[in-house]
Amino acid sequence: MEKGAKKSWWTFLLLALVTLGIYLPSVQFGYVDYDDPAHISGNPYVKQGLSADSVRWAWTYAASAAQIKEGLYEGVTNLWHPLSWMSHMLDADIWGMDSPGGHHLTSVLLHLASVLLVYLVFARLFGSQWVGLFTALLFAVHPLHVEPVAWLSARKDQLSCLFMFSSLYAYLRIPAQARRGIDWWKAGSVLLYAAALCSKPSVVVMPALLLLIDYKRDDLKLAEGGSFSSLYNTGLEIIRTKWLWILPAVLAAVLTFATQSGGSHAFWIEQSSISGRLQLFAPATWYYLLRSFIPIDLSFHYPRPAWVLQPWLMVTSAALLVAAVAASYRGRKKFPALWFGVVWFLVLLLPVSGLAYVGSSFTADRYMYTALTGLFAALACGMERWLPTMPRRVIGAIIITALALMSIVQLAHWKDSASLFTHAMKAQPSDVTGYVNMGSLHQREGRYQDAVQYYTKALTIKPNDYVSWFNLGNCRKQENNERGAIEAYRKSLEIYPHYNPSRFNLAYMLLNPSSPYHDLNTAVQLLEELKASANYRPDKVKILWDTAQELKRLQR
Predict the structure, then answer these.
(1) CA dihedral (534, 469, 492, 269) positive or negative
(2) Cα angle at 255 between 250 and 261, to 5 degrees?
(3) Are 263 and 298 in contact (CB under 8 A)?
(4) pLDDT (tens digit per residue) in 500-516
(5) Is the pLDDT of residue 268 over 70?
(6) Strand boundaries in 131-267, DSSP class E
(7) How far apart are CA 520 and CA 510, in angstroms?
(8) Could you give the dihedral angle defined by the CA atoms of residues 100, 43, 143 and 347, in that order, rounded to the nearest 10 degrees?
(9) For 285, phi and psi rounded to 5 degrees?
């Protein structure tokens, strides 16, 4: 065996030991009551395993007997990612649904595979074993990466990352000189990129990374002089050489837009303007960078800080971001790795930056899973350039050890729902999400008074939280407080008129002919809205609808 091959195997062993040492404890974890019931443990298609019916649903979201019988949670079909669904189904076949530890083991192994690919990509790209190794170690141990590994519902982030780096590695192996026949490395890169898009469409920006790689390797000749003809010719050359990757990216973008426009996020997309999201881009970017360099008080959800909406801060953060990018561009010849890292980070940040609606969280740890790798590589290059070998290794070991210890602590918060929500309330006390989920946990255990205390606290922080009002209504209903339940459901719908759970529960209570709050007309209107949405408990909606029609007949 050659010396270089031996060194690579020792590198793989080191990366495996570090990664498994941090994440193997998660095989003792269960599901957490934050999306896991909706996406995995309570999803009728996932529970089927890989069947014809479940695979068809994963690719088309077409309703079937399973959905009619058990129903799907709202929001499950907001994003098209069929391969991620199929990975959960395969886990169900291999491990069963009563063994979440097996599902967690799959996530750990997927993370390890991505760590090894990060090493291969950056070692080849920069021609340096140190750059590849230190970048991969940072990727393996950074606390922001705990969420996509420990949270089973974040499987799509893992799979898209794995396939993206597989595609990038295949791209780096494409021979410089054209050959006759099929170029298997090119075909492999395109197919793996398609798989990444089918895992999570946020990797739609990968063709831009290919251009960045070409630029670094001096394979991309940019237009000179800025004339229209030169820009036109450069654009044609990019399309000619990258159309195989651009085409699936465009198709995935169209599918994503169509899926989100028809999902439960449609209302919130309509309520948030592009200009408003654009104003938050710079503050969110700095917020991400702050948490990347100081990864403390991490949580599964971050509220948008009130100070972010200050006009002076938006302008200042945007100016500082432009200045930072301009400075790295001006120094690109002297510090090429920094310019590379900045562009890599911004490109991968764009799809999850909030410019496209991705959810209620201001930022999310899992969105940094791929984006930070460029900055990691820039740091590794800087250390290799300015530090002698031994000091570099010592400092690198200190950094990796410190981050690994922080990740071990962060991982423990994901062991169960109570630990996760308790930590969230401590780490982000101004965020209602921890309180709402802790209230839901108590509610499912039948401790309604305790649940009401958490919902009340959440509504003190955020009076317009429609989920808290809905959950409060459920608790009042269980306590036989009919009036309080109806008022809570109505309040929920005043805030978010499209929230189907509140529509359904309110319609159910208003249909009761023996209740002093009986209101058949309002119940029928709510049921009509539920039928129009067509994706919420269709079998149970039909029962209520038939009941309403019978009551209308009796009133004639």
Answers:
(1) negative
(2) 125
(3) no
(4) 899 999 999 999 888 89
(5) no
(6) none
(7) 6
(8) 140
(9) -65, -45
